[in-house]
Amino acid sequence: MAASWDVIVIGAGMAGLSAAQQLHAAGRRVLVLEKSRGIGGRMATRRDETGQWDHGAQYFTARSAAFRRQVAIWLRANLIGRWHAPIYAWDGQNLSISSPQQRFVGTPKMNAPLGAIAATLDVKLSVQVTAIEATAQGWQVNAGEQIWQAPQLVLALPAPQAAALIPVAHPMQAAAENIPMSPCWAVMLSSEHAINLPFAGAFINDGAISWLAHNSSKPGRSGQHWLLHASVAWSQAHLEDSADEVIALLIQAFNRLLARWGQAEPHWQHAGAHRWRFAQGSSTQAVVQSAETGLVLAGDWLAGGRIEGAYLSGIDAANALLAATAGQQRNQS
Ligand SMILES: Cc1cc2nc3c(=O)[nH]c(=O)nc-3n(C[C@H](O)[C@H](O)[C@H](O)COP(=O)(O)OP(=O)(O)OC[C@H]3O[C@@H](n4cnc5c(N)ncnc54)[C@H](O)[C@@H]3O)c2cc1C
């Protein structure tokens, strides 16, 4: 049986939930559909009995006035915290301190601010949308046997996943197609003892690893948990490797770095890996929404490829739909 909503948002990451929040605040009946078992998308934290790791986005910054306002609200509600720890860069020879900036993380886990938004909305989890179709009334959304309908639709997905759903004849299909999004292998480690490094996170501009972080140094975390991200080139070259192979190779690379920094090889108690197929990417051109068709796109790739961009793209997408509705109402009166 088809259910009716004003707007359906596909994807419960930062972009989808900021769009949904904006539409909900404007009085729209919004339904959010998400394929995973939880919300947050790439703002993700994995927990198990041995600890927790932010294995996707590491932190976010806030440059625009709109996002700073939102960040201030989350700070007041203790949904995010400031990560004050020093961040370094390694060029293969020297460690140097990276430029100081305000870095924020969700507390106690990365998706905490999104959880607060989702709690005010109708969100259906474990729903993988398999097709969308333009109808006389707007849009029909299919997830296997399940069907939903709404006059308006927000696709808040990484570009390749959006491109796969948008009908070929639709003007937004070309905007999402051929936007390259790079992969990233993440490795999660915990060590028996503290590792004595001068930084809490470091950009590694040499070799297989591109970023490493002492995850436990972030507010609301504890223990001796480390997170490694492989470089784009390495992740592409090892995309189809097994998790065990990736863990072994990236531990070797980390141990080599630790030796260069005068550290003994740690005893790793736990190791896990996660492959992000569409980690980061960004359109090089501004994308003009065609909201009059009832379909708009949102996602980090539309606005610079980061959490702040995802937030702003969601607001833009929602505003485009609200403006289109206002225009239609003016034409009818
Ligand atoms: C390894 C890594 C490191 C990063 N580091 C940083 C960082 O330090 N700072 C920073 O600002 N950004 C970072 N980013 C980028 C940041 O995570 C993203 O910019 C942001 O989270 C993207 O939000 P989004 O809503 O656009 O997309 P996503 O978070 O990808 O959300 C899309 C959602 O759509 C869902 N979905 C997909 N297909 C379907 C379907 N068919 N049906 C239903 N649901 C579907 C997905 O499950 C997902 O929840 C990093 C990303 C990765 C992967």
TrEMBL record:
**Residues of the Amine oxidase domain:** 110-322
Superkingdom of the organism of origin? Bacteria
Q: Name one Pfam family in it.
A: Amino_oxidase
State the name under which the record lists this protein.
FAD-dependent oxidoreductase
